[in-house]
Write a structure and sequence with these properties.
The chain is of the alpha+beta class and 328 residues long. 45% of the residues lie in helices and 14% in strands. Helix 6 (155-168) packs across helix 7 (212-221), helix 6 runs antiparallel to helix 8 and helix 7 crosses helix 8. The longest helix is centred in the N-terminal third of the chain and has 46 residues, at 62-107.
Length: 328
């Protein structure tokens, strides 16, 4: 009972009561209005200093801005020079073709016809004819998926499509007006798709000359058709195929070879002395191929576009202007 009575009379321990009394005696005096104003001023000045430092760090330096403007000017100037040289190259190529046709038309018409057929196969001249048009468009994206590369048409998509068209029997192919040859490469540089060195922009229009029904049927049965179906169903990339009664494909111009060269005409024309029948060795029989080791070479998919080099391009679908064929 004594303990309960003491707790009721003095609920606070004497030590705690003494500490509270000392804290009350040593409490700092209340700050006045002038102190509060100074605190506000110091806070504003600190905020302005931090904001100014942040802006100065984010703002590009004057040297970087000048270098960027100089690079932009150089890009525009070189682009204009390249376009001018391309026009001059086209004019000179047309003049060379006209002079060549004029010289061979009277001297060797057969050689002229053969050169024209080879020019069509090598994609050197414009061609026209019926065919198939395939348009690939990037998938619609919102702000969260804007930088997703899977929603954009990539170089591998165009490569598979074009390889499938070649395998389906296409006789001439162009992408966004760029004619494909045996040395054409489709690749990615950053976020841009390049045909050789020409950047392409969305949408990507692939035009192939040939029988539209056969091309579409063969493409749907191939791995390229399955890939296009996956792009459409999984990633939302637009794939549109339409048959065209007439397509106009430009020429790619002459191909500049760096290492390849034609055999010397003097070496092939030099006479050879046939060996005497008494001294000639007997012919060596060719080895019989072993059916267990012999194999048929298979076509290996390549990241570069396979053109129709070595194929015979018929004049039924592809017509080159100036060859005497009828445009369809």
């Amino acid at each position: 009972m004594t303990l309960l009575t003491e707790v009721q009379r003095r609920p606070l321990d004497p030590g705690y009561a003494e500490a509270a009394r000392r804290r009350a005696l040593t409490r700092a005096p209340h700050r006045g209005g002038r102190t509060a104003v100074w605190l506000v001023v110091v806070g504003v000045l600190l905020g302005l200093g931090v904001t100014t430092a942040t802006l100065s760090l984010r703002q590009p330096q004057a040297g970087a801005v000048a270098a960027r403007r100089l690079l932009e000017q150089q890009v525009r100037r070189h682009r204009a020079d390249a376009e001018s040289l391309a026009v001059q190259n086209a004019d000179l190529s047309a003049q060379i073709a006209a002079l060549q046709n004029q010289a061979l038309r009277s001297d060797d018409p057969a050689l002229l016809a053969q050169l024209q057929r080879w020019a069509v196969s090598a994609a050197l001249v414009p061609v026209s004819g019926p065919g198939l048009r395939v348009v690939l468009t990037d998938a619609p994206s919102d702000g969260s998926t804007k930088d997703n590369p899977d929603l954009r048409v990539q170089d591998v998509d165009l490569q598979l499509l074009i390889n499938g068209l070649w395998a389906a029997g296409a006789e001439a192919i162009a992408v966004n007006g760029q004619r494909l040859t045996a040395t054409t490469a489709i690749r990615t540089a950053g976020s841009a798709v390049l045909v050789d060195l020409v950047p392409l922009v969305n949408p990507y229009t692939v035009e192939a000359i040939g029988s539209a029904a056969d091309l579409q049927t063969s493409l749907a049965r191939s791995s390229a058709g399955q890939h296009l179906a996956t792009l459409r169903a999984t990633y939302g990339i637009g794939v549109t195929m339409t048959s065209q009664r007439r397509l106009q494909l430009p020429g790619a111009g002459p191909t500049a070879l760096q290492q390849a060269s034609t055999p010397s005409m003097t070496a092939s024309a030099s006479p050879t002395t046939s060996p005497s029948p008494t001294t000639s060795p007997p012919p060596t029989p060719s080895p019989t191929p072993n059916p267990r080791t012999a194999s048929t070479p298979t076509a290996t998919p390549s990241r570069a576009v396979r053109a129709a080099g070595g194929e015979v391009v018929t004049q039924s679908s592809v017509v080159a202007p100036g060859t005497g064929g009828e445009d369809r």
